[in-house]
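> call design_seq(struct)
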């Protein structure tokens, strides 16, 4: 993992985005599309790969890069890619693969109905499976269908997309794998992912202006803490949020490397970044240290109680786990 100190720098970037946009609109605008009937007005990260001179779209779904089966199918039939997908899904060997994938990765998969059609339909000439049927009747997540006026085609998890590509043409599959791995190293695409995180943080922080206060969990300052003259501004923030100076924390945790910020969670880092900007504003206004400390502590309490159950924070925590590697 990157150190929390490095992550603070990233959080500061996210806050810069928030400060630049939050005053302009309450809901951060973005690129919105409709996928089938169950993903409405959802902000998506999309890009394209050039696979052996064929453009193949990629769409990020729950932190996974799903690949367009529609675009892959055009390798075999430009005019009827949906027919190619239907033929593959109706093949017994194909069904065994994407059915097992759901059993392994989808806890809400309708395995009862899956077992029924294995006996009654799969392997017979009458068996027909489509992306829409697979999603609707079996609650599948590995293949995402799209239909209607704004259809963008059918997308699938990479595991399934690679299997589909192998069915189309083994050589084409190898080209696909090569380009997909190259995409993961593409700096521009990773920047698009970072941009999505910034938007998520902006929507999360907007709740500060609209939600009511719950209960106070951030430490309540003592009179001694309020009157103490702190040597640096970093400790003002440390006391406001964590209830102690860096030295006090180090004295309590002599065996730990780094400082308290290195061990802070995502929620604390978001609040800390907000406090840093607010403190800078108050310094520019000439507000004395004691008053700033009290105000920052009150703000930290409010933001903690507003954001602690935020879905946006949970998404950021998930992104933190997925993207920060050694």
């Amino acid at each position: 993992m990157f150190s929390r100190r490095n992550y603070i720098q990233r959080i500061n970037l996210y806050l810069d985005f928030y400060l630049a946009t939050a005053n302009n609109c309450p809901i951060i605008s973005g690129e919105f599309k409709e996928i089938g009937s169950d993903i409405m007005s959802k902000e998506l990260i999309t890009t394209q790969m050039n696979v052996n001179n064929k453009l193949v779209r990629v769409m990020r779904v729950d932190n996974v890069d799903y690949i367009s089966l529609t675009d892959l199918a055009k390798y075999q039939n430009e005019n009827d890619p949906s027919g190619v997908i239907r033929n593959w899904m109706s093949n017994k060997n194909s069904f065994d693969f994407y059915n097992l994938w759901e059993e392994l990765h989808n806890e809400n998969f309708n395995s009862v109905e899956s077992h029924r059609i294995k006996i009654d339909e799969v392997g017979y000439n009458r068996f027909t499976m489509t992306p829409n049927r697979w999603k609707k009747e079996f609650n599948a997540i590995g293949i995402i269908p799209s239909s209607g006026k704004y259809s963008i085609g059918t997308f699938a998890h990479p595991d399934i997309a690679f299997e589909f590509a192998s069915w189309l043409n083994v050589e084409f599959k190898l080209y696909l794998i090569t380009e997909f791995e190259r995409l993961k190293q593409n700096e521009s695409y990773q920047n698009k992912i970072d941009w999505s995180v910034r938007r998520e943080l902006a929507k999360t922080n907007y709740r500060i202006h609209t939600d009511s206060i719950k209960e106070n969990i951030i430490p309540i300052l003592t009179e001694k803490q309020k009157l103490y003259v702190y040597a640096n501004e970093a400790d003002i923030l440390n006391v406001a949020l964590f209830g102690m100076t860096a030295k006090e924390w180090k004295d309590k945790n002599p065996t730990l490397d780094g400082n308290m910020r290195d061990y802070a969670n995502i929620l604390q880092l978001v609040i800390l970044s907000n406090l840093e900007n607010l403190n800078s504003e108050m310094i520019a206004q000439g507000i004395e240290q004691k008053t700033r400390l009290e105000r920052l502590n009150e703000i930290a309490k409010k933001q903690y109680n507003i954001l602690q159950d935020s879905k946006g924070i949970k998404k950021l925590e998930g992104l933190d786990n997925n993207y920060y590697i050694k």
